[in-house]
């Protein structure tokens, strides 16, 4: 791939103060290329971590460890007595689509009370239900955290340990850091650190229907659901956040495109129509989705 593909994007980054760290482009027909605006170091993917949590759920489902319609309380019988009325109806799929029924997101960086509470799962189940499970969307870090706990419950390993031989090692991602809650459980919703090129491997695997080289890593059947079984989002103003939400993956305004999406502009964007993946790491505190628009205008025409 000719690195001239980045010329317009580099100008846009400078002119619009996008604060991009690095961009990696992969094309099945053109090959791959990358441009770095700073050292190629691992960065916090923030909510980009959620897509990896979804991959773990898909792998666990493929191993017969769980089903998407499973009631998650069945994996945590110790919380039955304290669970809010209605919480016993929350399913794995509700967690994936962020339709658990809460009226506020748990475990956000704006909160402080949860930092000192050892048992975050207890807090999740004890949170009052504002809606019937499976009926109302709310972007909720608690949903992704509980997916991590579900994987741990069915496997006996925390999320990172579970993914090491099944996902990270096959993709040659060495010893990734994934932060834990005070109880020692992988955060799931955020806390994973990778560099731009390592992050791109997620998108490339998704483009290839869950395969990496000659090995099926994530079941293709699960990925079809993860991408296409979407719900309508609420609470966002930007059009890029109004295209639908799958299993911890966002749909895009570009036809058939979808992405892993993290705070401040961590994106791995899958473009099936172009048979390509564009991955970006950044720190844009103003309007990170302007990075997406720069990709649409400056990179897509060359793919």
Model description:
With 303 residues, this protein is α+β, with helices and mostly antiparallel strands. It has two domains: 150 residues, 3-Layer(aba) Sandwich (Beta-lactamase), CATH 3.40.710; 143 residues, Beta-lactamase, CATH 3.40.710.10. It has nine helices and eleven strands. The strands form three sheets. It has a six-stranded antiparallel beta sheet with strand order 2-1-11-10-9-8, with helices on both faces. A hairpin with a 3-residue loop joins β9 and β10. The longest helix has 15 residues. The N and C termini lie close together (10 Å). The mean pLDDT is 96.
Secondary-structure element pattern, one letter each: HEEEHHHHHEEHEEHEEEEH
Q: CATH homologous superfamily of the largest domain?
A: DD-peptidase/beta-lactamase superfamily
Number of domains: 2
What proportion of the residues form beta strands (DSSP E)?
5-15%
The CATH C-level name of the largest domain is Alpha Beta
Helix fraction, binned, reads 25-40%
* Rg over C-alpha atoms, rounded to the nearest angstrom: 19 Å
What's the topology here?
Blueprint: H1 7-15, E1 20-27, E2 31-36, E3 43-44, H2 49-62, H3 92-96, H4 120-126, H5 141-155, H6 159-168, E4 177-178, E5 192-194, H7 196-207, E6 211-212, E7 215-216, H8 220-228, E8 250-251, E9 258-262, E10 266-271, E11 276-282, H9 289-298
Antiparallel strand pairs: 1-2, 1-11, 3-5, 4-5, 6-7, 8-9, 9-10, 10-11
Helix pairs in contact: 1-9, 2-5, 2-6
Task: Give the structure's gist in a few sentences.
This is CubicO group peptidase, beta-lactamase class C family. The chain contains nine helices and eleven strands.
